[in-house]
Amino acid sequence: MTSAPLSQQRLLIDLQRLDSQLARLTHERKHLPVLERIEATVERLKANRRRAVVAAAALQEAQAAARTREEEVAQVVRRAQVLRERLSSGQAAARDLPAIQSEIDQLGRRQAVLEEAQIAAMEALETAQAEMDAASAQEQEIRADGRELTASRDADFARLDAEITEAQSKRADLAAAIDDALLAEYEAVRKSTGGLGAVALYGRRVEGGSVEISPQEYARIAAAPKDRVIHAEDNDVIVVRMED
Question: Going along 185-233, which residue ranges are E strands?
Fold first, then answer.
């Protein structure tokens, strides 16, 4: 395509504005700050689940240790009770009484040691249970944060999707009004440049910046017929003259 009415060429500028808007909206949708926060929340949840697994194992071990200490104390208490009953019943031979009393005394010392171990086991159980409860509470907090962030993300998605849909509809209507060959040339340029198909030129100033084209470039453009589709020398972008 080497020529097209200026009125057609100027439609490319409106099309470029819509394409730039769509690119911005698409980029914004992919890089919403809330998405990073959701990822961080997922990592927090994973870390807390690992903490919960460790806490559950520690709790199970502490429960088993507490039961063992309790059973050991109970066994000593039962044995001592049997011996006391035998001692007080008067049925034991006189020669056996010192041995029975000695075993009762030994059991008393053994019970004191075991009860200290039982207390330590109970403290360990309380610590393990507290860690398990903390992990559970933390998970609930993380999930609440996640629900809040997800709701925020969904609201942003809905807003951006609506804007994208509207811009796409406008673009489709505008593209339909542009000559197929000119539109194809514009699309080819956009593909080669990564998104920029046309720029508007007001005198020597390119829209969107304070940069002015060189006098030589301006002379080349000014000398071209009005319907000539002009490409910039440097990057092949279509330069649309906006002033008659």
Answer: 198-202, 205-206, 230-231
